[in-house]
Specification:
Number of helices: 5
Distance between the termini: 35 Å
Shape: globular
């Protein structure tokens, strides 16, 4: 028996590099992308596998996998983790998170924070959903001034997202037009050069590559269906949430994420 859909927020506590493994351009290992929209995602299979491995290390795999059945299907079904907002530097606010009407509206609709027939329609000039007054701000990443205005319609969504990051950062969400967000995200993703060293501590031939990564505090959400017997995993995703690694770069300071169900925030 499957429960109602649960919406889970993810935040990258460290840079995150869920690569596709093969790239055709200057990036050898790009992050995973939705083939329909071209927007970055983390595949649900990667999240589910990471959860199972981590819970097994804690002796709590029974929460999602039948005891004594190694090949049994998990008691949870996990969708792709969709990017909601990408952090970029800003002179006036130190850091802002970039999103679009489509991305924000999709999250609000799936999590029940806003009706599906109630669209978000900020103009392409940009709107900052925060407690700030109307005005303007310079975003050096975009190299331009954007108009800022207060919008209380999305207060519930902003509260949920802000709960995922340290309070001292005072999250500011900047909404750009859907037509430009993909290009902006491609520019906002980080890149690093990796190499495999041989026995003499020199780079092995053909073992130098470039990979993309999501910067720290990137925000995602996913849909999770929980079957009977696995409800205990939801209690781990309340309050501060569940901290676990995704990918094989954890020892290099990459791949640590925190998961929390929508509505489980413990901020005041």
């Amino acid at each position: 028996m499957i429960s109602d859909n649960v919406v889970v927020l993810l935040v990258a506590e460290t840079p995150l590099s869920p690569s596709t493994g093969v790239g055709l351009g200057e990036v050898d290992r790009p992050v995973q992308r939705d083939p329909a929209t071209g927007l970055p995602v983390i595949r649900g299979s990667a999240v589910k596998g990471a959860l199972r491995h981590y819970l097994r290390s804690l002796g709590k795999e029974f929460l999602i996998s039948p005891v004594g059945e190694d090949n049994a299907p998990l008691r949870i079904s996990v969708g792709d983790a969709r990017l909601i907002a990408l952090p970029v530097p800003s002179n006036s606010e130190f850091m802002v998170w970039l999103t679009s009407p489509y991305l924000l509206g999709r999250f609000e609709a799936d999590s029940g924070l806003r009706r599906r027939d109630s669209g978000t329609s900020p103009d392409d000039g940009g709107v900052c959903y925060s407690s700030s007054e109307n005005g303007s701000m310079f975003v050096d990443f975009l190299n331009r001034v954007v108009r800022v205005k207060r919008c209380d319609d999305h207060a519930a969504a902003l509260k949920e997202l802000a709960c995922m990051i340290p309070e001292f950062l005072q999250m500011k969400l900047l909404v750009l037009g859907d037509r430009v967000i993909k290009e902006v995200y491609d520019l906002g993703l980080g890149r690093r050069v990796r190499a495999k060293l041989g026995e003499e501590k020199s780079v092995e031939k053909g073992k130098l590559w470039v990979e993309e990564y999501f910067p720290q505090y990137s925000l995602f959400y996913l849909n999770m269906f929980v079957m009977k017997g696995a409800e205990g995993i939801l209690s781990l995703m309340k309050g501060r949430g569940l901290l676990f690694p995704i990918g094989g770069s954890f020892t290099l300071g990459f791949g640590l994420v925190r998961a929390r169900i929508v509505g489980g925030c413990d901020h005041a």
